[in-house]
Every structure is written in C-alpha cells, then in structure tokens.
C-alpha cells in the first residue's frame, strides 16, 4: 500500500493527461457528469435531488474501485450510508443491497437479486435515459 496521499496520473504521449486513477474524491467535472446521469438519487423511491447527493463509488474505493465516471454515481447521504459496499454478500440478511452499473445504467441489486431503478419522474430525464 502506498498510502492515502499518493496519486498516479496517466499521460498519453501526444494527447496529454488521460486520468488520475487513484484520486479518492470525484473532481468537479466527475460530479457534474454523475448529476447529469441521475437527476435524483438512483435508489428506488428516493426523492433527493442530485445537487444534494454525495458522489458514490459503485465499486467501493476501499475495494479497489476507481474514481472514474463509469464507477461513480450520486447517492443521497442516507443511501450512500446503507449501500452495501461489497464487504458482505448482498444476500446477507442485513444487507440493503448495493448499486451496480447494469447495461450502462445505475441500478440497485436487492438482497433477493432483483435489479431496481428509481421510478421518480426525473429519473427518466437523466443523460443515460436520453441517449
Ligand atoms: Zn437516496
């Protein structure tokens, strides 16, 4: 382990900086992308708007998940706290499930294995629903 203060940047020889893979926190641009994708917290039945959400690593940073746009989503503070970061089996009786990216979209995998999205009206207006 290199510690919490070590960052590794990837630089293309002609295109320049490509990514900063070990950053712990999302950049401003990454946060905007996450908010554009999910206008409300993507946990089913949640109504918290994206601008009041936290940026969440879908594959937990502590488990090696990278801070890049495809691994980030917004979650409200409550759902970010109850999301199972993969430390235990999602079928565990105390698990509330966890967010995954499925076919490009962020969904909840319930402890029973169902894939659920948020059906809030604004959920259908996120960037991934518009393409
Ligand atoms: Zn929420």
Descriptive report:
The chain has three helices and seven strands. The chain has 131 residues and is of the alpha+beta class. It has one domain (25-130). The strands form three sheets. It has a three-stranded antiparallel sheet with strand order 5-6-7, with no helix packed on it. A two-stranded antiparallel ribbon has the order 1-2. Strands 3-4 form a two-stranded antiparallel sheet. β1 (9-12) and β2 form a beta hairpin. The N and C termini lie far apart (40 Å). The mean pLDDT is 86. Zinc ion is lined by residues 41, 43, 46, 48, 75-76, 78-79. Residues 41, 43, 46, 48, 75-76, 78-79 line the site of zinc ion (ZN).
Name a few traits of the molecule.
3-stranded antiparallel sheet, 3 helices, alpha+beta, two-stranded antiparallel ribbon
Give the biggest beta sheet. 3 strands, antiparallel
Low-confidence stretches: none
Bound chemical compounds: zinc ion
How large is the share of residues in beta strands?
15-25%
State the end-to-end CA separation: 40 Å
- Number of strand segments: 7
The helical percent reads 10-25%
Q: Oligomerization state of this entry?
A: single chain
Radius of gyration: 15 Å
Class derived from helix and strand content: alpha+beta
Helix count, DSSP H or I runs of 4 or more residues = 3
The total number of structural domains is 1
Listing every helix as H and every strand as E from the N terminus to the C terminus, the arrangement reads: EEHEEHEEEH
Mean pLDDT: 86
Overall shape: it is: globular
In spatial order, strands of the major sheet run 5-6-7
């Amino acid at each position: 382990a290199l510690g919490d203060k070590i960052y590794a940047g990837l630089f293309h020889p002609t295109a320049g900086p490509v990514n900063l893979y070990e950053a712990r926190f999302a950049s401003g641009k990454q946060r905007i992308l996450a908010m554009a994708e999910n206008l409300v917290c993507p946990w089913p039945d949640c109504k918290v708007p994206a601008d009041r959400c936290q940026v969440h690593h879908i594959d937990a940073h502590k488990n090696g998940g990278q801070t890049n746009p495809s691994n980030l989503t917004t979650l409200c503070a409550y759902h970010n706290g109850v999301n199972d970061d993969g430390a235990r089996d999602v079928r565990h009786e105390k698990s509330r499930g966890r967010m995954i990216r499925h076919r490009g979209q962020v969904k909840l995998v319930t402890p029973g294995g169902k894939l659920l999205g948020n059906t809030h009206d604004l959920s259908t207006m996120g960037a991934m629903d518009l393409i």
